[in-house]
Design a protein that fits this description.
- Helices cover about 40% and strands about 10% of the residues.
- It is α/β, with parallel strands linked by helices.
- The chain folds into 2 domains: about 25-185, Nitrogenase molybdenum iron protein domain (Rossmann fold, 3-Layer(aba) Sandwich), CATH 3.40.50; about 190-295, 3-Layer(aba) Sandwich (Rossmann fold), CATH 3.40.50.1980.
- The relative contact order is 0.11.
């Protein structure tokens, strides 16, 4: 009996010693970074503080979020003050050294991406303006390869035992993304030069990448809800000066629909980020499908 027990103990010890290392716990502020990190670290447990239908500007620093951040080996957020109203509180209350600013394991996408709309001077009279640039960098398509390289290096440093897997996954992501960039440029050709009225500067990077122009905003100032007076002023736009009205899935549709009724311009609702289990490239495919279905001339047979 003692011999059998001894063999069982040895077997259990061997199983522990040969079992794979514990997967990383990663905290992200937005679902797009969950999707991006999942492509590089598929074995990791990745938790997103927000969902596809939430405005990442406004989040409650709930105890459950603090607990998730406390457990994290690494964190990734958009940055550029997008999460300024809630992330610093999570960082402080989690008391987790790994997720504090200036730590290698705390990654801000805005520090890697080529930022648009930087401002030397900002005050509250300007509305919700971000001095460091537009923080909605999930649509900075040409910067995703640079982000992938940074993510790969961070993962290698944080979890060196699995460095080879991270290098392999990162290289596969970048090869696939490069192929998609070529495909997207060809598909998006009919969108070049299109002009739109949009809600907030949510799609600033998307429009720049697609060579589209946002000629007006449904908001009177960034972060200020549409007003009757402001919407009335938009009806004075030359109908030939824009092609569509665009808003995001997390934004109130009433302003876009009202302007549509006055101008008869088509309305397009675009997703803000990935839906559940959607890859980042699938989000881009969906957005291009939505835009092309309205703004591209039908092919004549």
């Amino acid at each position: 009996m003692r011999f059998k027990i001894h063999k069982l103990v040895l077997a259990a010890s061997a199983a522990i010693l040969t079992s794979p290392a514990m997967a990383l716990n990663i905290f992200v502020c937005e679902p797009e970074w969950q999707a991006l990190l999942a492509a590089h670290a598929p074995e990791a447990t990745i938790y997103s503080a927000t969902t596809a239908m939430q405005d990442p500007h406004y989040v409650q620093a709930r105890p459950s979020l603090i607990a998730k951040m406390r457990q994290a080996d690494m964190a990734m957020c958009s940055g550029a003050d997008l999460e300024i109203g809630w992330l610093p509180m999570l960082q402080a209350r989690s008391a987790n050294p790994a997720v504090q600013n200036n730590k290698h394991s705390m990654l801000y996408a805005s520090e890697i991406v080529s930022m648009l709309d930087k401002h030397d001077h900002v005050d509250r009279s300007m509305g919700d303006i971000h001095a460091h640039g537009n923080p909605h960098v999930q649509f900075a398509a040409d910067n995703m390869i640079r982000l992938s390289r940074t993510i790969t290096k961070r993962l290698e440093t944080i979890d060196p035992d699995n460095a080879q897997a991270y290098r392999h996954n990162g290289a596969a992501f970048r090869q696939h993304w490069q192929q998609k960039l070529v495909e997207w440029r060809q598909r998006a050709a009919p969108l070049r030069g299109k002009q739109v009225v949009s809600y907030h500067a949510t799609y600033r990077y998307l429009f720049a990448w697609l060579q589209m122009t946002q000629v007006a905003d449904l908001e009177p100032k960034p972060g200020v809800s549409p007003t009757t007076a402001h919407l009335q002023s938009l009806t004075k736009l030359d109908p030939a000066s824009f092609d569509a009205i665009i808003y995001s899935s997390h934004q109130n549709k009433r302003a876009a629909n009202w302007l549509h009724q006055q101008t008869h311009k088509p309305v397009i609702q675009l997703p803000l980020t990935v839906s559940k289990e959607q890859r980042l490239d699938e989000l881009y495919d969906e957005i291009l499908d939505d835009l092309l279905s309205v703004l591209a001339e039908p092919v004549k047979s």
